Structures are given as C-alpha cells and as structure tokens.
Amino acid sequence: LKEDYQIVVIGCGAGGGTAAQFAKKTNRKSRITIIEKGQYPQYSKCGIPYTISGIIPKIDDLIEFSEEWFSKQNIELILNANAEQIDIKNKKIFVKKYSEIFEKSFDSLIIATGADPVLPPIKNLKKGNNCIEGVFSVRTLDDAKKISSYIKNKYRVIIVGAGLIGLEMADSLFKRGLKVTIVEVLSDILLNTLDKDMARIVSEKISDEIIIFKNHHVTKVESVNGKLNKVCIKNKITDLEKSIDCDMLIIVTGTKPNIDLAKRIGCKIGLNGGIVISNKSETNISNVYAVGDCTEYSNYVNHKHILTGLGSIVVRQGIAAGINAAGGDYKLLQGVLNTSTSEFFNIQIASVGPTSDNLKDFSVISAKYNGLSLPEYFPNKKRVSVKLLVDEITGNILGAQIVGDNAAFRINTFAAAILGGIHFETFRKLETAYAPPIAPPFDVITLVCDKISIKLSHKK
Ligand SMILES: Cc1cc2nc3c(=O)[nH]c(=O)nc-3n(C[C@H](O)[C@H](O)[C@H](O)COP(=O)(O)OP(=O)(O)OC[C@H]3O[C@@H](n4cnc5c(N)ncnc54)[C@H](O)[C@@H]3O)c2cc1C
After folding, report:
1. Mutation pick for ligand 1 pocket among 46, 67, 167 (CB with most ligand atoms within 8 Å)
2. Cα–Cα distance, 15 to 29 (Å, whole number)
3. Measuring from each residue's beta carbon to the nearest atom of ligand 1, which residues come in under 6 Å?
4. Looking at ligand 1, which atom is closest to the CA of residue 17?
5. How far is the CA of 166 from the centre of ligand 1 (A)?
6. What residues contact residue 236 under an 8 Å CB cut-off, 6+ apart?
7. Could you tell me if 111 and 283 are in contact, meaning their C-beta atoms sit under 8 angstroms apart?
8. Closest atom of ligand 1 to CA, residue 313
9. What's the distance, CA 113 to chain centroid?
10. List 46, 131, 294, 449, catalytic entry
11. Nearest in space to 202 (alpha carbons), one of 167, 152, 229
C-alpha cells in the first residue's frame, strides 16, 4: 500500500470504531478518518439497560473509547458529521458538519452505519416527526439519558417487544421500582432466541414479577396535555381490546439497517435488508467494506443470511474489515453461530445456532434435560434446563439453548462443538470439570446427549 493510504470509516459504533483500530494496527502509516453523525465517540449500547437500573452509575461511563483515545492512536474522529453522499468513481465522500459541507478522499471505505429502531404502526404515537412525550426507543446514549430522567415520579411502564433488550429493560425498570407490563405480538417471549418450550420456562418464572400480554399488539396511545397516559392493546387471536393506564411506553420491536448510502453506490442488499458482505467483510464493490448492524451474513449452521444484531458479531466483523481495508488478510468464519446470552429477573439464558423454527430444512432430533447446576447435596443448587438440537442424519450438533446458571459458559461449549463439527455421541463423553461448589460430575450439557441417544435408539 502507498505511504499515505487513506481509510474512511462511516459510523463510530462498535463496528466502525473496531474497524478503525484494527486498520491502524495493521498499517500504522495509513491515514484513518471516522465520520460520526452523533455527538459521542464509541460507546457500548449493550450496557444501556444497566444504566437504567443503576448498576452502572453514570451513563457516560458507557463511552469505551474517548475522543482523546482516538487522537492518541492517530485516528481522526469527526463527530457531529453526517456522511451525505459517496462518489465512488472519484473515491470521495461528502460530509455535512452543521452547515458546512466538506469532502474526504479515500482509498478504502468502511461503511458501519448501524441500524435504527423500527416503530410499529401505533395510532397517535407521533406528533409531527417526534413521538409524544413518554414514548421511548432504546438504542442510543441519548435514549438512555432521556429514559433515565423521565423515570423519576413515574411508576407504570409498558414495554413493547419481548426480545433480549425488552426483557433487560423490563428487569432494569422493575429494579427501579416501576410496575412493568410487557406486550408481545408473538405467542411467547424471546422467540427469536429460544424455542417455545424453553421460552415458556422463562415467561412462567418472570410472570410473578411483571405482567406479560402474549399474542397482543399495541393499536393506539392516548395522551393528556401531550403526555402519554393510556395504551390500547389488542389480542390478535380473539380481537379483544384493552386499555391500560401508563406513564411510559418503551418500544423495542427491532431495528432496520441503515443502508441508504451503500445502496446508492450499488452495494448488494440482501433479502433481510442488510448489506451483503463476504468473509472478509467486503461488499460487492472493490475497496468498500461494511460491518455491523447494517450488514447481513450467513448463519454457520443453516447457511441462511441473517441480519447482524449482536455486538459480539459486530466487533469480529470490525476486525476483519479493519485488517483487510489496511492491506492485511483476515477471514471471518463462514457464518455466524449467533451465540447469545442475557440475564433478567435472576434468570440466565443462552443460545447458539438457529432455533427449531429455523431448522426446517434439517431432520432434527431434539431433547430437553432439566438438571441441577451443582450436585444434589450441595446448597444453593439451581435448576438448569438445556435443549439440544441434533442433525439426525449426521449426528452433528445444530443448536442448543440453556435457561439457568452459567448459561453463557455452558453454551460456549456447544458453540465450540458446532464449530468443530463434533458428533453428539463424542460430545456426550466430554470430560467436564467437576467440584461440588462449581459444577456436578456430569453436567447438564452432556446429560442432554444421553436423552438424544435414547431417543435415536428407540427410532431404530
Ligand atoms: C440496549 C441494547 C443492548 C444490547 N445488548 C447486547 C448484548 O448484551 N450483547 C450483544 O452481543 N449485543 C447487544 N446489543 C447489540 C449491539 O449493541 C449492536 O449490535 C452494536 O452496538 C451495533 O454496532 P454498529 O457499530 O453496527 O452500529 P451502531 O452502534 O448503531 O453504530 C452506527 C453509527 O453510525 C452512525 N451513522 C449512521 N449513519 C451515518 C452517516 N450517514 N454519517 C455518519 N455517521 C453515521 C450512527 O450515528 C451510529 O453511531 C445491544 C443493543 C442495544 C441497543
């Protein structure tokens, strides 16, 4: 690469920030500029729910890499600057900062524009371009600040969307003393992460603490003096409507990738609406890379494209884009395992691989095992439920889900098994670590394999 090789990164989220860092590490002489339309440098969105509960005392503590940090690394970070247009032929972008427009030339471009929340069609939700007072999304540091300051003196909150973020927010607001209701359009909570039978374990446990309306959607909101005071919901099966008094409505029903700039220069957009990237985080246009929530990539197990929506995946794509854009050579795995975890209301959950609904093209044999986190005789043991999905033809592990203690570390073992193409009968014999206060001699992760084995032998 030439001496003053120029890399421009659009977006300073986890994806863009990581890409810039790795580009610099790969080629110290390269000139790297990050254009970020917001006012903050790289921060952790994943920490937002914990600033609401107060576990993280200061919201600004979520800023992981400051402006000074980028400047020390010799990476130019321009905040409050919106990348408006890309001239791909002449390799430059046009940026608007306040009322000024300037150009930046590049040799390599990394698009890391993330995604924006999608608001479902709810009557009276907006006044002009903005949502009415009392309605919030959960995506940015400013969203966290707004929610946090609005909570004071409010006590009834409705959360729309029972995915991981919805539940993390429910837990945080519950911890702050609010009365929490969740409205979910699907037949149970967490169905993007867990199978229905596993999700039910969680929803049964948490329905002691909060109210959950399943199969419901929000139809309209009502306000007094411009402030939200009622939310109307409808049962999608019975059509019965209900109106609930509330002070806050938090909408976490998913996001839409920011692909406008990429689309305008001819980047291939996939069926899920994300920029399609290769295992080097490249788009179909040479020297243009894309990373993070604006992209889609193949699932390692079923090879279907899925939108990137996990920070764990985003930073790995950032590494690939940064290294490759700066002249290195780095390949991602041929797909994402979608290993994820969370904790709410003292319940840990974790999952890897597609859920059963997304394995329809496979001949799947599954089993569930309810065991204990510690030996039977040890105090404070807790129930751990595990579900395993195995390919009946090859015997390979396709996916696993866990509800219970140490869910993340237990699921990571399954993630390694999927990656290694390990037959479940081999995994069944895995020698897991044992000490009474930590784990039992036979862990639930191998005991569930016994059940698969028995099921298969009955089929023969
Ligand atoms: C509340 C919450 C909790 C989460 N928890 C977890 C978790 O526990 N584990 C996990 O793995 N993942 C989690 N995630 C997901 C994870 O945070 C995201 O996948 C990740 O932050 C996305 O990073 P990104 O860089 O792709 O996008 P973003 O962080 O959205 O960054 C994109 C940036 O691009 C900027 N931008 C967009 N367009 C332009 C433009 N034209 N010009 C200039 N700048 C532009 C935006 O302002 C933005 O700062 C969570 C997400 C949220 C919201």
Report:
1. 46
2. 21
3. 10-16, 35-38, 45-46, 48-49, 82-83, 112-115, 138-139, 165, 258, 261, 292-293, 309-312, 314
4. 25
5. 16
6. 185, 215, 216, 217
7. yes
8. 11
9. 15
10. 46
11. 167
pLDDT of residue 154: 78
Mutational pocket test of ligand 1: of 18, 267, 314, 336, the residue with most ligand atoms within 8 Å of the beta carbon? 314
Residue 3 has pLDDT above 80, yes or no: no
Question: Is 131 an active-site residue?
Answer: no
| Cα 177 to ligand 1 centroid, rounded to whole Å | 28
Contact 73, 195 (CB under 8 A): no
Angle (nearest 5°) at CA 146 between 144 and 151? 95
Report which protein residue has its CA nearest ligand 1's atom 31: 13
Can you read off the two tokens belonging to residue 416? 């390694």
List pLDDT tens digits, range 160-176: 999 999 999 999 999 99
Q: Which atom of ligand 1 is nearest to the CA of 16?
A: 25
In angstroms, the first-to-last Cα distance of the chain is 61
Phi (first) and psi of residue 113, to 5 degrees: -85, 0
Q: What is the 3-state secondary structure (H, E, C) of the chain?
A: CCCCCEEEEECCCHHHHHHHHHHHHHCCCCEEEEECCCCCCCECCCCHHHHHHCCCCCHHHHECCCHHHHHHCCEEEECCEEEEEEECCCCEEEEEECCEEEEEECCEEEECCCEEECCCCCECCEECCEECECEEECCCHHHHHHHHHHHCCCCEEEEECCCHHHHHHHHHHHHCCCEEEEECCCCCCCCCCCCHHHHHHHHHHHCCCCEEECCEEEEEEEEECCEEEEEEEEECCCCCEEEEECCEEEECCCEEECCHHHHHCCCCECCCCCEECCCCCECCCCCEEECHHHEEEEECCCCCEEECCCHHHHHHHHHHHHHHHCCCCCCCCCCECCCEEEEECCEEEEEECCCHHHCCCCCEEEEEEEEECCCCCCCCCCEEEEEEEEECCCCEEEEEEEECCCHHHHHHHHHHHHHCCCEHHHHHCCCCCCECCCECCCCHHHHHHHHHHHHHHHHC
For the chain, the C-alpha Rg in angstroms (whole number) is: 24
- Does this model's pTM top 0.70? yes
Average pLDDT, the chain: 97
Distance in angstroms (rounded) separating the CA atoms of residues 313 and 300? 12
Region 246-252 average pLDDT: 97
Q: Which of 179, 239, 241, 237 is nearest to 212 (CA)?
A: 179
